[in-house]
Specification:
single chain, alpha+beta, 4 helices
């Protein structure tokens, strides 16, 4: 039997849908529990991923988050969002990402904007070649998720999951398990700008 292969972009969409399905089957109220929020078109948070602006022009690329799943994992509330690259040419190499931000008193759109340069990305895909990538560092700042995701996937998936342009359907559940594992083992760090 031939199984359907997923591109990296379709994999990330399927992972996000599976996260919603797993957590939202136990529908709980909006007061700090699991729910989905879709942003209005003109209110989607944008996280900067590249800026080549100067005094004469603006050239910036962003990840645009249209929807987030708010879930509780080990008594911690997370906003998990699927992003799509947009804007000018600094965004061209990228396609999608799944990011997670720990919710606190700061409004979620503001938190997602702080995820600039893939600071809070769990997994992302490139536009050309369709490979997956995991940010371990953003400049000198540690991405708390990238290394944990890679370690989990190396232990729980046979084969090269980063370089392959098409993925097995079964990989969706492994990635979701990796996200849950990573967020369950999260060690708090300071997300404020340095």
């Amino acid at each position: 039997m031939c199984t359907k292969k997923l591109s990296s972009d379709k994999l990330l969409v399927a992972v996000f849908e599976e996260i919603k399905k797993r957590f939202l089957k136990r529908a709980i109220n909006i007061h700090g529990e699991n729910y989905v929020h879709k942003f209005h078109t003109n209110q989607c948070p944008l996280a900067l991923i590249g800026d080549d602006s100067d005094d004469h022009r603006i050239r910036a690329g962003f990840m645009r988050y249209e929807e987030m799943a708010v879930v509780r994992i080990n008594n911690t509330c997370w906003a998990i969002a699927l992003g799509s690259a947009c804007g000018d040419y600094p965004a061209d190499p990228y396609s999608k990402d799944i990011t997670a931000v720990q919710m606190d008193e700061i409004p979620v759109p503001e938190l997602l904007k702080r995820s600039c340069y893939f600071l809070n990305s769990l997994i992302a895909s490139k536009r050309f070649g369709g490979e997956l990538f995991f940010m371990r560092y953003v400049g000198s700042r540690l991405n708390p998720f990238g290394t944990q995701m890679v370690e989990f996937l190396e232990k729980n998936w046979e084969g090269n999951f980063q370089r392959v342009g098409s993925h097995e359907q079964e990989f969706v559940n492994v990635v979701v398990d990796g996200i849950i594992h990573t967020l369950s083992n999260f060690v708090e760090f300071d997300m404020k700008d340095e």
